[in-house]
């Protein structure tokens, strides 16, 4: 029996003159039929790997703008080749645009006329121009530390980690290293239908180098990386990258923002190509520079693209960004995207250590015009179509059907991450990192924290000490317990919390999709009207507040909660709560009795049933220890909540029905930034309801800018039983400041906001009504017996702000102006508020 013999050829493809690697060049076996292994593309470092029969002795490298280069190989089982490619004589390495007497103009400019032809024909040339299409898709994303010096690598602390470091062949200077740290691969079958529009991705296999989930949310980390390294579609008007939007050079409005130049005609390709170079009119705008290769066959299709960004762009931490798109022609002379590669190098400084990543998407087996059954397109846009537990089958899929060979350093990442996590010193490092980033300390099967709540202070409790923790999956995957105890040295009272949660899906209760039931008991203080997201109320930093802020509630709550999330990001929930509350500090519960005398109440009791719905299509987030950090996109989020107070059940004293609806949407405005808009409405049905069970509008008396609170409203200032609100946060991303000399070097970004809420109290819940005023609690008053809480008058409460973000790349500072109700006691007219905002 004869066995086919193969040989493995690895190597690099470089520019013959500059010796710089050529990324994503095609390397093919000359004379071999198209088959797996006989053709590949170089990676971001110009490296390739081919495995093919020994009967073939020549390989060929090709790339747009270079002459093809052949290299002979021997019959050695393993060998390496360096292929040096010569740039074509008519290829320009760069475009230098110098000021001329004649000012650049779109009028009578052949380059602009050509790009208008590309824009005019883009709908027929893009995938969405087909009624039906399907193709195979392979994605690969890898990241690692870059630009590491020899001195850094050889530090004593890294003695046991030398196997991780690799020489950086792409570095401009010698003795530079990289540390590969993450890789993810995904193979899919994708179906597209134009009408009704639907793209359905069936994931056939997905594998990544994973860290211990008790330290890192691997799914969230992958989602975050995917957001930074999004797929690039040159035919979209706007291209999303690193959480920003860039105007495409073939967007409908591109001639307004770009300058275009015809810099080459390439006759070695069929059809002939025009190299169309482009640069931003304003170097600081969110725009690209680079080259497009346009076909001269009457279709004006894009055959290739090389793009980067200007050095002056207002983009944080990005040291280098490269995009390369490669299209291939089918039998009907249509060009389809073959390979899309995005490489980004992040760094705090120009020369220091950074994080380099690349995402490559390869497309094969395009078929158009094939209508599949409706069931193929139905359901969520993405479906996992394989057994995630069968690790062996997944590994075999990639080993046998991976269309682009991995470089050896990429293959090593899988093994190195597994090895790394077995080293005790690395696990200790991850434990400390988890404490710093999440606030929890690992202690066997439990976690102690969060540390930022261990100490705080407020006017009612004085100094407050708290200790708490929760169980982890090391104890049980189905049952979770969480608890804390706190003590106030001024009121000399203990506070407690305990909850037990049972997960029906044998996953962490915080992992998507959630499905659990939770029982809890809580005895603690609460500020009426303060509702915080992603932070604890007794966080130390929130202890610092302005004005009078000593109106508190002592609350005792017994709760039962059910929650279920679905894969389409619809979430449903139900709850049952028994609540007892007493006033604390200067808060009072009082009303006039039959004799006109004040009657004080020391306790209120209510029993509530609730249901809620939340729908967030295509939602993305990073899951922390407690909170999810949203990764916003263009899709809206809808919420609906209903709560019923039931009198006579478990000591409940009041009947009421509360309805709340809300919607959030991020609007992308291309070069003008983006706006986050939240709209909310609330209606409470019932009469003679005490104000603690009505809507106490979200106020903020800290010095931090809170997105969803009214930053110049006082606690318990406004109360209503029906209301509607709007909240607009507009981030212009430096569009104005980037055009001001000197100022633009600071890379500051403008941010504007407007918040308004309007509502009122029906007469049966209004303390000022002559018929019902004696049946509901009176308005709050300050120490001077001046009224300090109100409902709305003839106009909504409004506040607006103008601010600067990106200060030191992480800080947002706003000047906030209160627009009305300035006659209220202690109402601030303006204030300076700050917020830490990490962005790119």
Automatic annotation (TrEMBL):
Pfam families: CarbopepD_reg_2, DUF5686. Gene3D superfamilies: Carboxypeptidase-like, regulatory domain. InterPro entries: CarboxyPept-like_regulatory, DUF5686. It comes from the Bacteria. Transmembrane segments: none annotated. This is DUF5686 and carboxypeptidase-like regulatory domain-containing protein. It comes from Sphingobacterium ginsenosidimutans.
